[in-house]
Amino acid sequence: MDGSDRIAVYAGQFAIQTLTLAGIALAAFTLALIGLRG
Fold first, then answer.
1. Distance between CA atoms of residues 7 and 13, nearest Å
2. CA-to-CA distance for 16 and 1, rounded, in angstroms?
3. Does this model's pTM top 0.70?
4. Torsion over CA of 27, 28, 34 and 35, rounded to 10 degrees?
5. Can you tell me where the transmembrane regions are (predicted)?
């Protein structure tokens, strides 16, 4: 595996982590809004 492949794998893992964190943040924000309104 050369450098470009390693960079692609690293970028893919970073994107997955970012999307996962964004999803968790969105879910928490939504639950907070529901809690405040309810």
1. 10
2. 21
3. no
4. 160
5. 14-36
CA atoms of 30 and 25, how far apart (whole Å): 9
What's the first-to-final CA gap in the chain, in angstroms?
Answer: 53
Q: What's the pLDDT tens digit per position in 2-38?
A: 788 999 999 999 999 999 999 999 999 999 999 999 7
Rounded distance, CA 17 to CA 30, Å?
Answer: 20
Place of tokens 């970073």: 14
Rg (CA), the chain: 16
